[in-house]
Amino acid sequence: MPRHPLTDRARSLRLDQTNVERDLWNRLRSHRLGGWKWKRQVPRGPYIVDFLCAEAALVVELDGGQHAEAVSYDGRRTAFLESLGLSVMRFWNGELIENLDGVCQTILMTCQDRARSRTLAPLAGRGQGEGPIRATDASGRISGG
């Protein structure tokens, strides 16, 4: 299978992740969030998505201050990803800093909702060791879902 042209860039982004990306990745990796398998910095077409759960066909994007000026670009990117059958959730970095548990709860609920609509399920027995995530506030800047 030929390598995607963005593979090296994605690898570089994984090595240079932001603190906010690292914090969310620590909650998603190794099936820790409800048993769902996640990948980070994954090439999809001409884009690299921040986090991808292929089982739920869900992309999670973290937006820093630079995204406030990139609304048009983000719209095209989201439309492309949705054309692949992916749903896209976007969160501001500040939301994760202030309410990581709530963001994770929102992501988990979206995975579960998509599973019900797609008749998917996470791998059994995974992600059960940490107990439930308790949300204090589930509000977020989310598109798709």
Structure description:
With 145 residues, the chain is of the alpha+beta class. The protein has a single domain (7-118), classed as VSR Endonuclease (Endonuclease, Chain A, 3-Layer(aba) Sandwich). Helix content is 40%, strand content 17%. The chain has 4 helices and 4 strands, in the order ααβββαβα. It has helices at 7-15, 19-28, 71-83, 93-118, and strands at residues 39-44, 47-53, 58-63, 87-92. A 4-stranded mixed beta sheet has the order 1-2-3-4, sandwiched between helices. Helix 3 links the parallel strand 3 and strand 4 (87-92). Helix 2 (19-28) runs parallel beside helix 4. The N and C termini lie far apart (31 Å). The relative contact order is 0.18.
